Amino acid sequence: MHKRVKVCIRVRPASKDHAGIVINEQDKAISVLNEPNGNGTRFRFDDVMGSHVTQEQVYQRAAMEATESVLHGYNGTVMAYGQTGAGKTFTMSGGKTSFSDRGICARSIAMLFAAIKSDAEHSYCVRVSYIEIYNEALYDLLDFSENQQRELVVQENDKGQTSVKGLSRPVVETEEAALDLLFQGETNRTIAEHCLNNASTRSHCIFSLHIEKRAHDDSKSPVVSSKLNLVDLAGSERMKKTQVTGAMLKETMHINKSLTFLEQVVIALGDQKRDHIPYRQTTLTNLLKDSLGGNCRTLLIACVWPDESQNDQTIATLKFATRMMRVKTSAVVNSTDQHAHATKKYVDEIKRLKHELALHDTLAGRSHVTYDAEIAPEALAEMKADVLAYVADPSRSLPVVNVLHIQTLFRLFRDVVLETRVAAPDDQQPEPGDSKRHEPGDRKRPESGEPPPPEAPVVAVLSDDQLRAEYAELMQVQLEAAKQSFRKSKRRVVQCATDVNLAKSEIDAVTKALAGDLGDEERDRLVLALRDAKKGYRIAFDALSTAKAEMSYMQKSKEQLVTSAASDYELWCAKSTAP
Length: 579
Known about the structure:
Layout: E1 2-4, E2 6-11, E3 21-24, E4 29-32, E5 41-44, E6 47-49, H1 55-71, E7 76-82, H2 88-92, H3 104-118, E8 122-134, E9 137-140, E10 153-156, E11 162-165, E12 171-172, H4 175-187, E13 191-194, E14 197-201, E15 204-215, E16 223-232, H5 239-242, H6 246-270, H7 283-287, H8 289-293, E17 297-304, H9 311-324, E18 328-330, E19 335-336, H10 340-363, H11 377-392, H12 403-423, H13 457-463, H14 465-514, H15 520-577
């Protein structure tokens, strides 16, 4: 069934008194005043949320529907789009100093595991992945090794669905485990000081929840699989306004290029006469192919900055959001047939094809050819020796048996190349700017081969003593606020635990009284009292669960702030002591 993309607008608080827009939440409309051409412009969307709307209300009004659909087997995508500083990352990831400031990612995780816990008829397997697109290169934010050895490649299956080969997808069994990976991945994101945003994310990031659902008692029932993509796009910006230089200029050019092609894809999807959709122009559009025009239920949250000085970017964001409303997707339940007879049919077909291949090889005079999915270790060692001999002797040739043999040879070639790189002397190692991977815990972008000019904003924040002191003061304020929130949540857990124990004691007392010899009137009174006591226990227990979740979230937020501050300090020390 075709369904168009849902589009919501979120307006951040104005930083100046003179606002450049007027919103009408009842009519779901937004008007831009004194736009560059001199005329007012009015837009209407599925929802318009002003600056007074809380994080919880944003999730309930916009993103909750996508999470619910994923639990029923539909793919879902929530995408935040807008200029730098408009509030995209706050919407998706949330603040770190208050539990109420949790973003869509954390709230989706909480809702997902709450639904899984209440579903007694199905078993679930949940995996998470976190990928970053920085300067058109892919990075696995959940790969915490110093140098990522696995190459990430966007690939497409026979159904036209895209995935990333080599991307880690660890299994998570609890909400706490999923939040741990979310926070660790966010620590590895590429951010930088910016004239419009003190902590501007300089990359596109996609946090995904992969769910498989099976019925408990029916082994022949289908497996329902789905995926929820939570996309935080890097901010669009005008280079004339920001006046960035050096490495940040390169980042901005890559960001604007990918967002431009994203807009071209959206325009093409909205034009029914267009046959070709340019998904493969950039890594971002290639990854979002399913979310934009495939098997997915998609939501766009367009974030705008209401200051009049930002009207040109606000107009651009609202025009993109309008075009997005013309895009339609076709979401279906992802169900895989798991019947035993279907499995046997495929096994028999594989055996028959292997026999045919063996007969063909015999007629062709070839022997000892295997078509198993895995090659024996002895044969693998012989093939590696052949590869090394081939590299050493230009006149030597390699035998080619079948496709599996060719794929294995390519893999062995890659291993040899990687081993050669590791063994290379220091003077032959690539320059620091050639490495595109962050160090673990390093939240700053990779350095370029040449140091950025002194006037670049990111250098100023690291080298100027006054700005560094202001940054340290800001981090101290945030950390102290997070500590206070954590202490409050801890006291709330203690109080809720006390309420649970009191409710349990009341239930025990009423139950004991009911066991005695009672009259009808007294028994009826105690039955009602027992019912009220059980209701109070359930309320107290739910409050305790919420308080524990809040305490766990604030603990992780506090730890992330400490890790980020330590990483920034280590980076500054390394730069200040460098020759």
